Structures are given as structure tokens and as C-alpha cells.
Amino acid sequence: MNKQSLIYVAGHKGLVGSAIVRGLRVQGYTNLILRSRAELDLRDPSAVDSFFSHHRPAWVFLAAAKVGGILANSTCPVEFLRDNLNIQNNVIDASHRYGAQKLLFLGSSCIYPKFAPQPIREESLLTSELEPTNQWYAIAKIAGIKMMQAYHQQFGFNAISLMPTNLYGPGDNFDLHTSHVLPALIRKFHDAQAAGQRQVIIWGSGTPRREFLYVDDLADAAILLMLNYHQPAIVNVGCGEDWTILQLAKLVAEITGFRGDLVFDASKPDGTPRKLLDISRISALGWRPRTGLREGIELTYQWYRENRWKIAEPPADAPFETLLGGRSATEPAAVSPAGPDRAR
Ligand code: GFB
Fold first, then answer.
1. Is the beta carbon of 330 within 6 A of some atom in ligand 1?
2. Which fold has domain 7-173+211-241+272-333?
3. Helices 215-228, 15-26: inter-axial angle, 10-degree rounding
4. pLDDT score of 310
5. Ligand 1 centroid to 169 CA: how many Å?
6. pTM here?
């Protein structure tokens, strides 16, 4: 990849794609080609074919995907399986057919078995059953990894895949129905603080452990791999440390200034108990995360405060599937009628 190469970042408006664009620009890669979802629907094979045949990007970062938190994943299995399969099949195939020099695909730490030995090594893939709440998304991502390896094996196509842990940062989705836990907690605590509420509802038991990586660090890893890694074997990207949801909630409460009670809603799923990644492989290539969790949450909270006015409220009757695509905001989920547990 040189500074004049035409680089296509698919999904440049999303959390990961926007961070990759920021990282590329900082490193002097300015010949970028970017298309919004409205301009190019990556689920449509003929639209993707036409885009690649006209522009023939040399380097492709495939950061476009249907993503969401635990509730979105378990509520919309069709979108998570079908849309991700379609997007990745179209982009992988067109990248190869129109002569891209290299393609980078993003999997996820949730593709590993639910009870994989911790920290999770890349070799754990497909060794036992998946976590049911995100099996649809995981199956699509596993198919994407296999597709990349198949093109590598059959055509010698330089196709590489990285497995990020749970990501967060500027541009995240703060919609309380569809977001991941970290942006959801930022929003819940901010809103509770603003409304003078004394309680914030946290889903599940608070005991699951999660690893959180600031998205600009992931972008640096993606660019490093694009430049220096050419193997079909997948590469984990995480920070090497994890926290319980309770620990995370206390930290976000402190950063946002919320001093009320955390109330646990046991009617919501916990998901997998733990998914800490083994990062020996990427560490051997010289990559380290630069942003600690506290600093990353502070930066993300700052972004949220500066940009929350841009986040459109969806109509009250918006169907759940339409919320998946956007940055829209909704009311907090109701407390379990069974009565939540009090944590502090
Ligand atoms: O981030 P999250 O939605 O997804 O949830 P996963 C992580 C944990 O936080 C779960 C708890 O135990 C949730 O029950 N949690 C507590 C909350 N309060 C909240 C809240 O207000 N919102 C949310 N969303 N969670 C995802 C997969 O799993 O991981 C995706 O579903 C993807 O496919 C992503 O792979 C990285 O970490 O459980």
C-alpha cells in the first residue's frame, strides 16, 4: 500500500470504518474512495459489481457489517445472518475479480465458542458450540473468514482477517435498543444525570466479563496488518485485559458524574461469560493498544456530549429492524416486572 494507492474503506460511516479513515489520513493515505449506504448498497451484487468495475480500488478494508449489541443480535437473526453474508460475499468476490491487491476483513471475538479456554487463541475457532444470542452474526462472520481463506488458497488472493474484541469510541451507536454495553451505559448515566434520576438499569447480572478496545487502536492494527501481514490465518486484536459489567458500570458512572444506584435487570441476557482474546500473534508484529479504558471512555463521552444533538430520535413506532441501521436514539428499556436486583 503506497500513499498514492486507491483505497476503498467499505462502511466508512460506522464506528470501525470511520476510525480506519482517520488512521489512514493521519498516516498520509489520502487517495480514499468512500460511499455511504445510500450511495452504494453493499447487499446488492450488481451495485457492488458496478462500483468495483468503475473504480478498481487497489486496497480494500471491509468494515461494513450489520452490527449490534446482545439484544439486537437475538431479536433480528435474519438481518444479522443474511445481510452480513450478502455484504461480505459481494465485496470479497468483487475485490478479487476487479484486481484488488489486498483485502482486509473484520470478524469478531464473539465468533469463538461460548466456553473457549481463556484467553482465547485463534486456534479455538470452530472447536465447540457458539453463544446462542449472537450465533447468527457469528455464523456469518465465520463464513466470511472461510471465504477469505478460500480465495487465498484457490486464487492466491491476498485476503486477511482480523478478530477485534468489543470495540467502542467516537461515532459509536448510542441507541439503547441496538447498541453495545459501553455506549449504552454512557447514554444511560448521562440521561439519568440530566433528568435527576436516582437509578440506572443495567442488563443482566453484571458478572460477565468483557474486553474493550478503543476503536482508533483497532484502526492502527488494521493498517499495520494491511502493510505487514499476508497470511490467511486470522489475527486477534484486543487489549489483553477484561472487566466485569459491574466494574465497567461503576467506571462509566464515575466518569459521567452519576451518583445514584445501579439496578440489575435479570430479565435481560448475560450472553457469553467471558471472551478475553489472546493477543500474542498481533503483539509479535509490534502492535500495542495506546488508549487505556478510562481515557477511552472519557474521549467517547466527550464525543457523545458534543454530538448527541445530531443523533436523530426515531419515530415512536419505528420497527426494530430499521433502528439497526441508524444512529437513532430510543427510550430506555423498561425495568423487569419481576423486580430488578439492587447492586449498590
Ligand atoms: O455489549 P453487549 O450488548 O454484547 O453486552 P456482547 C455485553 C454485556 O453487557 C451483556 C450487558 O452481559 C449485557 O447484558 N449489559 C448491561 C448491556 N447493560 C447493558 C445495556 O444497557 N446494553 C447492552 N447492550 N448490554 C456482542 C454480540 O455480544 O458482542 C455482537 O452480540 C458482537 O455480535 C459484540 O460480537 C462484539 O458482548 O454480549
1. no
2. Rossmann fold (3.40.50)
3. 60
4. 82
5. 15
6. 0.92
